Amino acid sequence: MNTCTFTVKPVGTVHADNESFSIKISRPFRPALPGLDGFSHLVVLWWVDRVDTPECRDETVCKKPYTRGPETVGIFATRSPARPNPIALSVVPVIDIDTASGVIWVGYIDADDATPVLDIKPYLPATERVREVSVPAWSSHWPQWYEDNPGFDWAAEFTFEE
Fold first, then answer.
1. CA 91, 97, 103, 108 torsion: positive or negative?
2. How far, in Å, are 14, 50, 111, 158 from residue 161 at the CA level?
3. pLDDT over 90 percentage in the chain
4. How far is CA 110 from CA 60, 92, 135, in A?
5. pLDDT tens track for 106-157
6. Could you give all domains of the chain from N- to C-terminal order, each with its CATH number?
7. 102-136 burial code (b ≥16 CB/10 A, e <16)
8. Is the pLDDT of residue 162 over 80?
9. How many helices (H) and strands (E) does the chain have?
10. Residue 66: predicted pLDDT
11. Are 11 and 119 in contact (CB under 8 A)?
């Protein structure tokens, strides 16, 4: 097994409150923003810092994370924040970008306020969207498109409590 270690430097932080969501890019990384104008969505990689504990990093199995799912599921078959490396991925809709101040306003991101952002990439349908996909039967009733999420009762799908 490869035992390499990595150093990851956040490029910014999430700002989230009851009214708005944004990503504030750190000054040294603001020159990386030009060219994002025109992309309707971004892929944001972020560090789930609030569960970065040895116990969470050792977790490999989840007990019934989904209401309609099996009794146990391997951590790689979930979007659980508890994982060997607490890296999360979100596709977010872009509202506006201010390259001078380093702020990207987004419609929503499922990260907490002050969460470290590791990287940002443009969402590209040619590489991210897949026409023929399959999912387990227990999740086959979930929305097939991002735009269908607002009307779906996601809270009823998970067994965890907030």
1. negative
2. 22, 15, 16, 8
3. 72
4. 22, 9, 22
5. 999 999 999 999 999 999 999 998 989 999 998 999 998 888 888 899 889 8
6. 8-48+86-125 (2.40.30.70), 50-84 (no CATH)
7. bbbbbeebbbeeebbbbbbeebeeeeeeeeeeeee
8. no
9. 2, 8
10. 86
11. yes
Cβ distance 86 to 57 under 8 Å? yes
Amino acid residing at 44: V
Please state, in angstroms and rounded to a whole number, the distance separating the CA atoms of residues 151 and 162: 20
Look up residue 67 and give its two tokens.
């209401």
The tens digit of pLDDT for each residue in 42-57 reads 999 999 999 999 999 9
Structure tokens at 56: 């969470």
